[in-house]
């Protein structure tokens, strides 16, 4: 599944469908990326060691959960690891009481919250971070989801 991200501005998110699942593509601003330094200490699994339905690709096992050469881009499956609802967001810092002073996503079903890297905050019903599917850049403005250097997922 190819996605054209050329028109995606910093702070904007688009949703595409991959294997019947919604995949969010969020181009994070510098401020959004900076928020991850703080939330690193507030999330349950900062290094994404515990998989939900798929292993986090090695190149995304980092604080931003993104490829090193395109840190701004977050690619995650928008399905909550608790009972499968679709979280809403992204919410800006301070705009949602359940997220407090952090920006992030909120699952409306039972209140799990996720940071802007899709990592679940501590003590929430959702046990794992949102899935990061394999993906790679075809050009600076085009990515393919479900496929990377290791082949097709
Ligand atoms: S399904 Fe998301 S918190 Fe329960």
TrEMBL record:
<keyword id="KW-0472">Membrane</keyword>
<dbReference type="InterPro" id="IPR036922">
    <property type="entry name" value="Rieske_2Fe-2S_sf"/>
</dbReference>
<dbReference type="InterPro" id="IPR017941">
    <property type="entry name" value="Rieske_2Fe-2S"/>
</dbReference>
<keyword id="KW-0249">Electron transport</keyword>
<keyword id="KW-1015">Disulfide bond</keyword>
<keyword id="KW-0479">Metal-binding</keyword>
<dbReference type="InterPro" id="IPR005805">
    <property type="entry name" value="Rieske_Fe-S_prot_C"/>
</dbReference>
<protein>
    <recommendedName>
        <fullName>Ubiquinol-cytochrome c reductase iron-sulfur subunit</fullName>
        <ecNumber>7.1.1.8</ecNumber>
    </recommendedName>
</protein>
<feature type="domain" description="Rieske">
    <location>
        <begin position="38"/>
        <end position="144"/>
    </location>
</feature>
<dbReference type="InterPro" id="IPR006317">
    <property type="entry name" value="Ubiquinol_cyt_c_Rdtase_Fe-S-su"/>
</dbReference>
<keyword id="KW-0408">Iron</keyword>
<comment type="subunit">
    <text>The main subunits of complex b-c1 are: cytochrome b, cytochrome c1 and the Rieske protein.</text>
</comment>
<keyword id="KW-0813">Transport</keyword>
<keyword id="KW-0411">Iron-sulfur</keyword>
<dbReference type="InterPro" id="IPR014349">
    <property type="entry name" value="Rieske_Fe-S_prot"/>
</dbReference>
<keyword id="KW-1133">Transmembrane helix</keyword>
<keyword id="KW-0001">2Fe-2S</keyword>
<dbReference type="Pfam" id="PF00355">
    <property type="entry name" value="Rieske"/>
</dbReference>
<keyword id="KW-0812">Transmembrane</keyword>
